[in-house]
């Protein structure tokens, strides 16, 4: 009888343990979100590869112009160069160290592919030369007072733009491995987060903590650089900007969780949008809000399609496509794909592959770089 009672208790105990061992249904509660995340979107993002090796935040990942080499950088003060292997996976080829004393925040390949520029919180921008596959740091652009946040090479490779927490944007002239400061632009009132060139290279655009986007141009007569416009529509730090292939539009993303599309209007445009001094004017023609649950840190316009990729502080990667019947004065973009858990922490950077139209790279605070395939 005692044995029997014992075994009954034993069985009860086992039953309880068995039930308790079921995984708890995870309840996802996001107090900021009112509507559920859209599911069953027309396109899917497949995680193709995860590149591990960095320690700490990975701030940026950039393909060289042929897309055969990928450079990443971050808090660990290193640049990692990854090469594609036969099966489409990416493998670490080199680690570049000792170029910087602090976090490396941004990278830019020269259009010819021979140079890689790295912007650092140590206040300098290093230039690495590719000497037959070996990279050597051969120049340091010094002048910013503190953290350099972004670096961008002009499309013809003759100019480099940098920007900093010191509120300035610098333009550097590149000549036979010499780098001379051509302009210091004091237009922003706060930290400048990003610099980008238009595809034709005649317009330089910067985004700032002061919530504005500034545009700069060189006067062909005297070579002087001046601010030619301020675009204000975001209600928080503007983190990044990306031009479309024509250079007549660009997208911006901000801490306010929105994406904005800006369009150029030439003097005498049929829409009657006012212009000043025979210069084109830029107008915000579309705002995408309600999709992101955090700051949008990066946006990248596809090299050949009207498809935007965004990197968000809510760990998500999202794609937005322009509708076929989109009105150029009020373009319509729809979210077509999303991975709401693309990274385990903030997604800092997103870039389309330059030639393989369905490939993307992201990098995050979770120490990894991810390669994505759109299907
Ligand atoms: C990109 O990098 C690879 C590997 O170093 C090189 O073979 C290729 O020529 C580079 N592309 C350009 C445009 O420089």
What does this structure look like?
By secondary structure, this protein is mainly β. It has a single domain, classed as Methylamine Dehydrogenase, Chain H. It has one helix at residues 2-20; strands at residues 45-51, 58-63, 69-74, 79-84, 90-96, 104-109, 115-120, 125-131, 134-141, 148-153, 159-164, 169-175, 178-185, 192-197, 204-208, 212-218, 225-232, 238-243, 249-254, 259-265, 281-288, 296-301, 307-312, 317-322, 333-339, 347-352, 359-364, 369-374. The strands form 7 sheets. Strands 1-28-27-26 form a 4-stranded antiparallel sheet, with no helix packed on it. Strands 2-3-4-5 form a 4-stranded antiparallel sheet, with no helix packed on it. A 4-stranded antiparallel sheet has the order 6-7-8-9, with no helix packed on it. It starts with a helix and ends with a strand. Bound molecules: 2-acetamido-2-deoxy-beta-D-glucopyranose (NAG). The site of 2-acetamido-2-deoxy-beta-D-glucopyranose has 7 residues, from loops.
